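Lay summary

Proteins are chains of building blocks that fold into shapes. Our project writes down both the chain and a compact code for its shape. Here are two examples, one after the other.
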Amino acid sequence: MATNGHAGGGREDREGPDAGAGRDGGGGRGERDEQAVGRFVERFAGELTAAGMQRMAARVFTALLASEDAAMTSAELAEQLRISPAAVSGAIQYLTQVNMVSRERDPGSRRDRYVLHNELWYETFARRDQVLSRWGNTLRDGAETLGENTAAGTRVAETAEFFEFLQTEIVAMMDRWREHRAARDAS
């Protein structure tokens, strides 16, 4: 889903008249260009939707990702995204179920804040590792059931082998990420 008229994002996304205007560079050094932030939220949410995430969940997730402290109330999300509180609630329910956000109480308030997990991508890929392990086990059982010398059994066994390979690669990749992050943080 392209939100700007360009599936992969076009030059005008990056080089329009207000590109870069008011950006804080991620360090809080200046004012944010809220229109540019809104375009980013819709663009990345569109990418997540194209990859299979529910549309409202993708928009809420990206709004949280783009927020300075990775946390917003339902009212803040509804206002920023111009959606109903019910749409926020449904999106939050989905994001909570898939462990992408958590609900925290504002100190001294009855309002909930929705917060991204600290190591969101690490946790997401770690859960994917568990899914791949379950799929691999089920596929191995299926290959045995179908018969290892049959076309179906061979195909299912190769699928299991692929998932086992992918699982090994994800674990190694996450180890390399931790090393990269530690080296970056040390410098």
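And here is the second example, written the same way.
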Amino acid sequence: MTHANARAVRIAGCAVAVLAVSLTSCTGSHGEVSSRPSTPSPSRTAVEPSEKKLTEQAQAALAAVHTGTLVEAGVERVADGVHTEPGLSEGKAYRLHLVCAGSGSARLRFEPAGAGAATTVPCDGSAVQRRLTGDELVRIDVAGAKGATGVIAWQIDAG
């Protein structure tokens, strides 16, 4: 074996070792690194759709109801919720579209309360729409109910 081939074999071996360590390590909630592999239980993966699939479903549902010019959008895990203070122009009308895909439900609320009625959003993939105006600073919060899982896709359209 030539010196160049031996070096290529060592580099490839190191790359495989680094990749293996990367795939089996994960970061815990407090920043500590765990060497435990992340292996979902067979029953969970067989029953629950993947986060990627739920995200695709939620985004497709949003695309079907998209109106006007996109102002702001995102996709969050139900457990993380949505928390945003969009920069809305005074006197303009907007429409908030939400889709929760997964199981359970989430609670949508606005601050100030007069900006919109609080409502429950089912995590069944259906779109929920609310009108907004840019007359005052609005905070939008969507929090998953206890035991809810999946993703929340949302967007704000102008016009």
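What can we say about the second shape? The first helix runs from residue 3 to 24.
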